[in-house]
Amino acid sequence: MATDVLDSVASIPQIRQTQLLINGEWRDALSGKTFATVNPATEEVIANVAEGDAADIDLAVKAARAAFESGPWSKMDARDRGRLIYRLADLIEENIEELAALESLDNGKPIRDSRAADLPLVIDCLRYYAGWSDKIEGTTIPIRGNHFCYTRREPLGVAGQIIPWNFPLLMVAWKWAPALAAGCTIVMKPAEQTPLSCLRMAELAMEAGFPPGVINVIPGYGPTAGAALVKHPDVDKIAFTGEDATAKIIMADAAATLKRLTFELGGKSPNVVFADCDLDAAVAGAEFGLFFNQGQCCCAGSRLFVEESVHEEFVAKIVAKAAARKLGDPLNPETTQGPQVDQAQMEKILSYIQKGNEAGAQCVTGGTRFGDKGYFVEPTVFDHVTDEMPIATDEIFGPVLSILPFKNVEEVISRANNTHFGLAAAVWTSDVKKAHLMADRIKAGTVWVNCYDVFDAAAPFGGFKRSGIGRELGAAGLASYTELKTVTMNL
Ligand code: NAD
């Protein structure tokens, strides 16, 4: 991306779309209700958005079912499905500045991150899966007797997709791209905190030419619109990203109709720094791994294990990094840390900081709200954290780093694995043997070695243990939107 784009202050984007998308038409909620979406940097209302509920979900599911069974989508050549996804990626690229600004306005993330991370990853994800559309193959299987046996991968049907607020557009791309490539139709419920970029992307999808009913978007609240989608008998699968507490409700609600479920949930990821590593690289990785996106990352490296012999030096360096972060207006390209997404998140984070202090951890920088307007929290580092403290066990989802010193490899493996979560982990070392040992022994869906938060649409992502069920991205993500059919012929 050109530096002049990265350096320019983003102008406040026009809010083009606040309605529901059902069967290719933009409409108000049947109830006529709306809800406010708020700018977390100023606490001002940005827009009032149509608030869908069970009745709107029902219409959207009917549209998605019709498009799946009998519309042009069901007969479309796989190459043409791919072309539509490529076209959507192109339109997003053409409107990248507007979408990045919208993302930063609604979510509070710094514009430099929306431009350099979120939007490019959205475009890559769409293009990656566009290429898969006409490459979904089965196998032939040598079975007993005079039979010809083969498998086909067929689209699963109507996919209900429920996403969180921390990467609003990227979560849309991770959900839509494999579903569309597989030939499914979609009813999406974006997070109530951040509906705007999803609605704008849906407008671009209509411009790209997706037939009516293939993509439906119903903003609204979890217990109403979300639950209605989960319980709807004509939805084949729920793909959910969010908290494990919500996933338990969804699993119970989906039981009556035995829906397919994929879950991308939370984490308390260990980031392990060995004394033999490139310490400056590890410090930079630790800063990025925790403070990126205001700490609102499912895979945030929030438990930072540092080998005792470099502990003091490491703490001094990470404190300097944290204190140098520039908090402020997310639309200013100088800003490196924006506000938390809403007041509830800010208060939750501040309550954990208090718990850290009460438990006897040492707050070495930050520790308070920043300013009195907007939901900003200072980058906070706690040292001498012990494993049982709430700041070491619970997902805080904010800019709070816990440093836990350790003595040796076996000790750190057992402490790193001592959690219900298993989403991600990182290891910093120059010893390749140690790196492989850690990659083998750490129970997590992703292990980064000498890097952090490296994402690629081709690399599967998801959780061990209570961090999720199934995988997104890569071939595994595509497979989760298909049914496997076995055909056996008597020859
Ligand atoms: P959340 O669970 O509160 O909400 C997520 C979505 O679920 C929202 O759209 C919400 O409206 C909906 N929802 C809430 N109650 C529902 C119900 N009863 N039925 C159906 N839908 C319902 O999560 P959040 O606070 O928005 O997001 C933060 C969480 O997401 C964190 O735990 C984070 O780790 C996780 N996350 C995970 C990944 C991953 O890939 N593993 C990625 C991003 C975020």
Automatic annotation (TrEMBL):
<dbReference type="InterPro" id="IPR015590">
    <property type="entry name" value="Aldehyde_DH_dom"/>
</dbReference>
<keyword id="KW-0560">Oxidoreductase</keyword>
<dbReference type="InterPro" id="IPR016160">
    <property type="entry name" value="Ald_DH_CS_CYS"/>
</dbReference>
<dbReference type="InterPro" id="IPR016163">
    <property type="entry name" value="Ald_DH_C"/>
</dbReference>
<dbReference type="InterPro" id="IPR016162">
    <property type="entry name" value="Ald_DH_N"/>
</dbReference>
<dbReference type="Pfam" id="PF00171">
    <property type="entry name" value="Aldedh"/>
</dbReference>
<dbReference type="GO" id="GO:0004030">
    <property type="term" value="F:aldehyde dehydrogenase [NAD(P)+] activity"/>
</dbReference>
<protein>
    <submittedName>
        <fullName>Aldehyde dehydrogenase PuuC</fullName>
        <ecNumber>1.2.1.5</ecNumber>
    </submittedName>
</protein>
<comment type="similarity">
    <text>Belongs to the aldehyde dehydrogenase family.</text>
</comment>
<feature type="active site">
    <location>
        <position position="264"/>
    </location>
</feature>
<feature type="domain" description="Aldehyde dehydrogenase">
    <location>
        <begin position="26"/>
        <end position="487"/>
    </location>
</feature>
<dbReference type="InterPro" id="IPR016161">
    <property type="entry name" value="Ald_DH/histidinol_DH"/>
</dbReference>
<dbReference type="InterPro" id="IPR029510">
    <property type="entry name" value="Ald_DH_CS_GLU"/>
</dbReference>
